[in-house]
Amino acid sequence: MLWPVRRSYRQRNGVQGTEPRKEIPNRVLLGLARDVIRDGHTATIFVKGYSMRPFLEHQRDRVILDAPRELHVGDAVLAEIEPDHYVLHRIIGLEGDDVTLMGDGNIRGTEHCRRKDVAGVVTHYLRPQRTLPATDRRLQRRIRLWRRLLPVRRYLLFIYKEMV
User: Fold this and answer.
1) Which of 12, 16, 58, 109 has its CA 20 to 30 Å from the CA of residue 82?
2) How confident is the model at residue 89 (pLDDT cuts 50, 70, 90)?
């Protein structure tokens, strides 16, 4: 189990909750999200894990997912890379029917799936204070720059972790 580096949003902002947050296993929750998207709806999910740092933070940020119409390099997608094993990662390569994925917070290692295994594409990033559309030009520039910084990403992520 991964432990968050930062205090939770509720702890930082003094939000009182009457019920503790209930966690649903990823294989169940993301399978339901896939089904909802296939039925023509959007799905909003909390981000779990650190593989999409610095753009998405564990249990702080949420994303809105919609059906994949056309895939592009740089899109953040929810994909089933093995039966009942989902990842929310960015597309770094498209070749025919093959899709190559890598998390923004990863320094090496990729996942592979087929186009039909992409369950949803991120359309909006929901942060505690604002909502960013995935098509935001400033965000797209930062994502492209981050992809080019892969050789030094290890050091940048270390600095980022110390700042958060």
Assistant:
1) 58
2) very high
The answer for residues whose C-beta is within 8 angstroms of residue 100's C-beta and 6 or more apart is 91, 92, 93, 94, 110, 111, 112
Q: What's the Cα-to-Cα distance from 3 to each of 50, 52, 67, 141, rounded to whole Å?
A: 10, 16, 31, 31
- 118-140 b/e with 16+ CB inside 10 Å = b? bbbbbbbbbeeeeeeebeeeeee
Is residue 41 assigned to a domain? Answer: yes
Are 48 and 19 within 8 A, CB to CB? no
For residue 16, tell me if it sits in a domain: no
pLDDT at 93 over 70: yes
Rounded to a whole number of angstroms, the distance between the first and last alpha carbons of the chain is 20
